[in-house]
Amino acid sequence: MKTILTAAAIALTSSAALAGTVALDKAAEGATLHEAGIDMSLYWTEAEGGFELVATYVTDETAEPARLVMLLQDGDNVTFGLPDAPDATFKFIRTGDVVVVAGHTPRTELVSN
Question: What secondary structure, in 3-state letters, does the chain show?
């Protein structure tokens, strides 16, 4: 069942290239993600109103770790970039008891007439 939920969460991502992906399916169980010069440690805990995801990361440009904390409710799908990392964005997806974090490299779309 966890595999199906993880696959469903990844399928929710856009058609842009996916790089490193981490699926967290247990509270307080950590994982690491290494993508586009960013090293990120991740875990979630149960909180009032959802799962609280904690991501501690460093980039090639920063020596000091930064921390990102967000509350994810079932069905949330959020994409954004991090300071000092212009070449990558990250997707944070919660489906049931699974939180997926994926490095996401935006693809340049060409338009012609």
Answer: CHHHHHHHHHHCCCCCEEEEEEEECCCCCCEEEEECCEEEEEEEEEECCEEEEEEEEEECCCCCCEEEEEEECCCCEEEEEECCEEEEEEEEEEECCEEEEEEEECCCCCCCC
CB 30 within 8 A of CB 74: no
Give the pLDDT confidence of 23-47 residue by residue, as tens digits. 999 999 999 999 888 899 999 999 9
Q: What is the pLDDT of residues 96-108, one digit of tens each?
A: 999 999 987 665 5
Q: Take residue 100 and report the two structure tokens written for it.
A: 């997926």
Question: Virtual CA dihedral for 43, 48, 50, 51, nearest 10 degrees?
Answer: 0
